[in-house]
Structure formats: structure tokens, C-alpha cells
Amino acid sequence: MEQPDDNFIEIVVTLAKEEEEEDQLKQKQKKKIDYNNNNNNKYKSASKQQFIEHTISKPEQVVSWLLYLIVKGTYPTIKEKAIQLLDRFLVKKGEELIESLSKEIVNAVKVETIKLLKRTLTDSYRQHLFGIIESFAVYLIPRGGWDELEPKMQRIVDGEEEEGEEEGARAEDEDEDDEDVPAKKEEDEEDEEDEKEELVEPQIVYNARGLLAMLLKPRILGQFGNGTHSEFIPDNLNNIFGFSDDNPKWMDTIAQQIIDTLFQVLNGNREERSTTYTYNMFRLLLVMAETNPKEFTPFHLESIISHLYKWLSEVKEMPMEEWTSGNSTSGSKLFNLNYFEERNNGIIPEYPNTHDQNYNQDDQLVEAVTTFDQFVYLLGRPLQVSMFNRFNLLLKSQHWKERYASLMSLSKFCDSNIMKQFPSILESMSNCFNDENIRVRWASIYCLIKLSVEYKEEMVESRDLFQVIAKSIRDPNERVQSSCCILIQTLMASLKKQKNKIVDNVLDELCNSFEILLQSPTLFLAENALIPLMSVIDTVKDRFRPYYPRFISILFTLLEKHHATIESRVLCSRVIKTISLCGREMGKMTFTKDIYKFMMFVKKNAWSFDLISDVFRASGDFINVIGKSFSIYLPMIIRMITNILDTPLSIQLEDDVSFQYAMRVLSALKGLNRILELSYDKVDNPLIPCAHHLVRPLCKLATFSNTGIGTGIQEYSLTNLPICVKLAYIHFGDRKDKKLEMFGMVINSVVFPSTLPSDTNVEELRNRINMADDLIDEMGSGAMTLDHAKTVMDLFYKVDKKLEFLTDQIRNENQDVIGEGHPSSMLDTLANVESRIYEMVGVLIKHNSDIVTPLITSDLLDKACEKLRYTVPVKEKDDDDEDDADDDDDDEDEENTFIIKRGILDLMEQYCEYGGESAINSFPQIIPPIVQCLTTKKADVRLKAAITLGAAAQLGKDRFAPWLNDVLHALNVMISGPDEYSIDFNDAREFAISSIGKIIRYVPQIASHASIIIPEWLGHLPIDDVQESNIIYENLCAIIRLYPNECFGNAYQHVMKLYNVINFYKEVEDDQEDDDENQELRSIRKFFRIQPKVIESLIEISSFIKETIESNWDNIPPKTKKELSKYLAEAAVQ
Q: What region holds the Condensin complex subunit 1 C-terminal domain (predicted)?
């Protein structure tokens, strides 16, 4: 906008004065006062004529000048007159004037007029401002020009303008007031200014509401149906109304008017609207439905239904061959419920070609169906009922597209009430199964597929449903057949516990249909038939046995015919999975012969990378079926899988071939993991002779670096390595040189710091640490050399340093380190990794204490102790609004410190148990912070601290004495505290009781206080933890012999307590006897029970107590004698 010259300003000023005089004249005429105004009229006519001449000769300059005066004018009278003149100019010239304006002037008018909404406006000023906006809106909306408006009205209303602009606007308002109002006292001016500032926001809301009401006027509304840019109308409406799911409350007052406007626009010229137009209009209506659902009238609901069904009916005509082949993509998630499993195993591409026209020919309706669903969710049952009524009507339509639309919509508005009418719905749909139009027949199956996901229980109750499916699967169209296959799979999931739900004649018909489909020349049809076949086998179980001979021969034929082609990748994988499933139902005796035939086929085609991957993945199932008999095939399979794992992989994985190879390697690693898990704990593990062949390729893959699929390859390699090394150790037996060579290879290639680049991410660090921990534990005692131990300790120091660096960077909000991650989550992961590296050193000490203990430096212990002492500082709270966020951060920090402390205490426990003289010498350094951990509020930290102190007492014996009182006091407080009897802390309490037992037994200085400490300790017995009870009973037996007088009491008052504690183990044993429990549970019970050597000690100590009582019978008080006599008599009977 351009500043006008003095001449134009004078014209505007004159016109303003004339108007003011004319207003005064009108007021006087009302009072019957007659004045002569002829001179004024001549004066006015001259000024007005000059203005008209300017509008004719330079219209754009006039608009620019007037806009300048409106926005930047210093006198209110001039601003009022300028906005009046511009409004009248636009009304008179209309679109002709706006069309002649430059884009720069048009944009300036749009922006500046909307900005004026923030001002305090007089009624006349506001009326003319809305008139200007209306004139431009009428012109711009049909041409798509309104969407360029910045800032949008909604932003202005919400007060999101620049602070400087806001202050400038207020300053201008104040200047205007200074011109109109006589000078006042300073205090009055300040009060007036404050009042105006308080009114700024309400004034904006008032103006915005008025603007929206104006834009909804029929004059503008009519423009939405005209012009060549009608496709932009939804965007224009969005810019006008500023739609969002959190509209300000004041917009609720005109919500009805907005909704009416949207429907009037939607209903206008509906035959000419495109699908995109309809979709975008519904996006706006959905926002209103979410914010103002009660404003939708029955008329609105009927209009929604009408448009949605019309949208769904817009089905493209296409040749039947093209439509039928539209489902040939096996990767389609819509028609493959095994999509994610097969994608993860590298059988199908991770991202199917969804841009392919054939793939998307029906997916183009996904938005329409989704919109159905969203409206039903937001507007509820009234819309559902109306839709159901329309469904019944359209299902009987003469037009196939309307029948198609009704079926496509059914699954989106069904609820539990409507599904009660499912028998009648199915009856109505039955006619569609025989519809003359193939796409309607397909839609009926599709509809049942979608319904079965949520209402399968109701559907399987229908007696006629499987009859209908069995009939439809014989449809001559391959796409309909394929959809029937998917429907069967979706229904089978709810029938696993109702295998007899499928009656014999239906099962027979289904199997006959599958038999025909599997022999179809169309590859994708055979692929899709295998999915429901597996579901049926898994559901009917042993009822499939009569059909097995027919199908196993077909499956072998499919493998022989198709295994050599790339196109048959999916088919062959599903065939092998089906064979393994058949074997599970047939059992070892029948399946052994066929598995031999199958494995001979595999041996003959060992060159096939894909075939071997599929076989290896299924090997776990084969082992489950035929057991050790399968071991004769394992060497062959391991050789084949080793070849797969040895395949060179490209780090970039830039092409599809490289990616598919990587996916096959990952699939092989998953298969190996399953075999290892199934056979690891079995005696005479069949993998023992060949596991060492896997170690080298696993080491190579464990260092494979790729942020995508490489993460999975690395993770599974690191998981499988320790088990394979352990099995290899068993195989090597006494050949120590081979063991050390293998262990060194793993350590140097996977764990050694030189393989940890500086950019190694935290997840990779965690995987490596976990693997190292598992590997050290699997190797057991004495498996490492000093060099190996130093290598692991080097890893510890390097990782610890990296963790400290990353933690500092994240806390300092370094975005280069944080990237797209969440700081809180990253800090959690770092804390877990730090805990794990301390645990790793603990395991190292446990199995290799002689060579590792000297490597535990004072600096390492100092740092660990400092972290044990650390507590999260309490922050001062200044801002109440931020209290919750600060509390959450503090809680997360505190939780992370507990995680780290737990790992450090794990190390300390092993150090105190196996560290010998070095550990004892470190007691002054480590015992105090461990005692301090007994007071934390985290139960597992207390538990670890209690265990560690018990181990230290057992190791140090009399040299533990300096800390005896402090430790006993802390343990006693911990045991006696009220929270120790809660579920969370009970385990910590019981381990503290056990540690006190160790202190009593092993620290001789306890003797001076034994008469007090021992009775208190006995008062806490017995405990619930059966495994820890073994240690407690063992210590109790030793303590009774060490301190018999203190255990019995001076008057033998503690003897009955001793008997009750000792005999408690019998109740534990009795509780664990259950003839009905399975073998796996029984084996677990054996571990968690009182051990035989402990029972033997308890029997011996019972005899010792009895002998002691009998030899001192005369010294026992009468009351105690009575209790003991009764007990001894019962014991004699037993």
C-alpha cells in the first residue's frame, strides 16, 4: 500500500467534514430547524467529483491510498471516511475492480483487513470492514485465492501475532483516542488505557464472530458453487473458519450455522463434484462432528448417508480380467493375514507396490469406508440406525454399484445391537453370494471378512455360514475364491476350542475345495489356499488325519514343480509350513516316513537359498514332532545354514537383491534361535557335534552394522552365540586349546574394544554387553585367560566412559546427540546399559576370581561407591505450573540411579563372595556405602545390599567386626519397618533375615551379644522363600551347635520355637506335592524346595536338640516340660 499525496488526503478530509455537517443537518431537520446549505452542497459536489475522477483514472492507486489511510491514518475521522469510501467503491465496481488490481494490492487488502479485527471498532467502521472482506471473499473464494490469506483469522483470534505488532496496534488505538478525547489528568489516562487492554481479547472474539457470520451469508455461500476453481472450496472454507479439533468456545455459538453452510455447499451441484472434493468436505464435517456432535440434525445425518453411499458407489468399470488379477499381489495386507510374519521372515517384500493400479483398484474406496467409520464413531447410534435402513434398501437395488456400496459399508456401522440381527443380515446377503455381478459377490465375501475381525463369535454361531462359504469357494472367479480363503482363516481363530463346530460334510467340502485350488494353474490362488488350509488343520486337529494322505502328495508335487522359480517363493514357503503343521497333527509314527522323503528332496536341492531358509525355520517344528530322530538331518541342515550365514552382506543394502539376502539371513538366525531354545536343555543335545561350525559366521554377523535390518541380524547373532559356544565346549571335551581358541575368537571379534567404533549406538552397546555377560556365564569357571579378562575389563572402561559422555550430552540437551530420540527414554537405556556392565564384571569375578580380582582397582571401587552414595537432589519449586513436570523428571532420575545401584551391588556381591583377600582389604571402602543402600526406598536395591553384606560377613569373618554394629542395626531397622511387610518389600526383608543368619554364624564377635540377637533372629523365622530357606536352615543348624545356650534359652524357653522352625520344611514339602501337576512344573518344584543335604542336617540337629533336652530334663521348668513332653510324644508317634 502507498502513502497518498496531500491532495488526495485533503479530498478525504473534506468528504469527512461534509458528511459530518450533513449528519448535523439531519439532526436539526428532525428538530424542525431550517437552514440554508446550498453553499455546502456545491462544496461537497466538487470534492466528490474529484474523488470520482481519481477512481476512474487510477483505481488501483485509490485502493492503495485508502488502505494506507485505513491502516496507518492518525485521525479517526480520516480512518472512518477512508474505510467507508473503499467499501462503497468495491460495492459499486465489484469484481471488475478487484480483477484489475495487482496481486500485491489484493494480498495487502486481505492481510491488513483481517488484522484490523484486533482493533476496538465502532459499529460503522466494523460494518464497512466486513463489507470490504465480503467483496474480496466473493471474488477470491471461487478462484482459490482465499487460502493464501496470512495470517489466518484463527491465528489472530488466538492471539498468535508478533508481540511487536500487537503493541503497535495498541499504540495506534491510544493515539486515536488522544485525538478525540480532551486532555485529562494522568491518572485517568492510565485507567482508561488499562481498561482498553482488558477489552482487547473480547473485542477480537466479538469481531471474529461477526466476520464468520458475515461470511456465511447467502451472497458468499452462493459463490462456492461457481467458478473454475471449485476443487479449492474445502481449502477455502478451512481457511475461513480455521477448522481444528480445539476450536475456541465462542465458535460453538455459530457451529450450527457453519454446519448448515458446509452441507449447503456439499449439496450444491453434487453431480459435478469429484471424489477429492467430497473427501475434503467430509474432513471439515468430521471436525465439526468431533467438536459439536449435538448440532447435527436428522437432515444432516440423512445428507451424510446419501453422500457417503454415493461416494462408495463410484466404482470404476474395468475389464473382468483386470479386476480379477487385482489381488494377485501376495504382499497385500488386505488379503493376507500372515503378512507380518511372512514379511519379517523375508518371504514377501517389506513394502508391497501399493502404487500399482491393480493393487489399488478397490483400495481407492478405503477413504470412503474409513469416513463411514469415523462418522459412526462421532455421531453414534442415530447414524447407525439410518445407515442400516439405507443398507437394506440399497441391497435390493437394481443397480449393482448400489448393492456393492451397501455391502462395503456394512462392517462400518454394525454394533452389538445390529449384530443381533445377524441371521437376517446373513439371509439378505445370501442372495448376494449368487448375484449376477461378480464384484457384488466379491463384496459380500469382503464384508464378512471385515465383520469377522470384530464379530467372529456371533458369526460362527450361524449354522449356515460355513455352508455358504463352502459353496462360494467354488465360484469360478479366482478373486472370489481367494477372498473365501481369507474369510475361512479369519473365522478359524475363534474355533480352536470348538473343533467340532465344523460338521463333517462342511469339512469334507472345504477340503475338496482346497484340493482343487491347490492344483490350480494360477499361482496366487494356490498360495492363498494354503493359508486357510493351515487354519483348518490347526482348528480341527486330529479330524484332519483322514485327509492327510491326499494333501501330503499334493504338497510334495507343488514343491517339485515350483521350487526352482523366483515367482513361487511365497508358495514354497507356505507349503513347507503346511507340511510341518501336518506333521504335528499326524504324530511321529506316520510323519517319520514323509519327513525322510522331504529331507531327501531338500538334500537334492541344497543349492536353493530360499528352500534351505524355509527348512531351517521349520526344523524346530520337525524336532517337536519326531524328537531325536531328526538329529540325523541336523548336520546336513547346519552345513546348509552355515553357507547362508557365510553369505557376504552389503552394509548399504541399496538394491532389492541385497535386501532380500539380508532378510533371509535374519530368517535363518531366527530359525536357529528356535532350534537352540527347543533343544538346549535336552540331554544329548543333537546340536552338540555341529554347533562349533556356527560360531565363526555368528561372530561375523554380530558385528554387521546397519541401522535397519542389520539391528535384527546383530541382535539374533549375539543371542545365539553364547549357546553355540557352550555346546561347542561340550563337544571339545578336554581339548582346552580348542576351547581357548574359540573363546578368544568370540572375545576378539565381538567384544574387543577395537570393534566398537566411536559412533556405536546405545542399543548396540547393550546387545554386546548382554552377549558378553551370557557368554562368560555360559563358559563357567576357569574358562578365561588373563588376556581375555583384561579384554573384558577394557570393554568395561571404554563403555563406561562412553556412557558418561552420552549422559552429560543428553542432560545438556545436545540435539546432535539426541536427534529424534526422547531424552527421558535415552537416559533410561543408558542407565540399564551401565547397570549391565557392572553385572558383567560381577559374572567375570564369579567364574574367574583368581585372575580377575587383581584387576579390580581402587579407582573402580571408588567410582562405584560414589554412585552408591549418590541421591537425586531435591529441587526447589518456584512455579506451581511446572511442579508436575519437575516431579516426573526427578522420579525418572531417581529410578535410573536405582537401576545403576542394582548393577553395582551385583558386582559387589560377587566381589565379596569370591574376591578373597583383595575384597576384605576393600571393606573400609565398600561396606559403608552398601549399608547406606539399605535405607533406599527401592526394594530390589535393599535386597541386593542385604545379600552383599551377608556375603561380606561370610568372607571376612572376624575382620568384618568393625562394621558389625552398623550393619546389624541397619538390617534390623529394615526388617522391622512397616513397609517390609508389604508385598514389594517382603523379598528384601527375607534376604536381610538370611544375611543376619550368616553374620551370627561367621562373625565371632557376635558372641558378646548372642543372647539378645539370636532370639530376635529366631522370631523372624521361618520365611516364605523356599530357595533362601535352604541357606537359612543350613546356618541355623550351625548356629545351634555354636551357641546352644543362646538358642535354647536359659530356661529352654526357645526350644519350641526351634522345633516349629525346623519342622516347617515338612509343610513346605507337603504343599509342593501334587500328582496332577505336569512334568515341567514338577522339575521347577525340584529346584525350589529344601535340598536333601539340608534335610539331613535338620534331622541331625533335631536329634541334637532332643538329646540335649533329655540330658538336662531335670533343669527344665515345669511349664516348659509340659509343652516339650507333648511335642516329644507326637514326634515319637510320627
A: 424-510
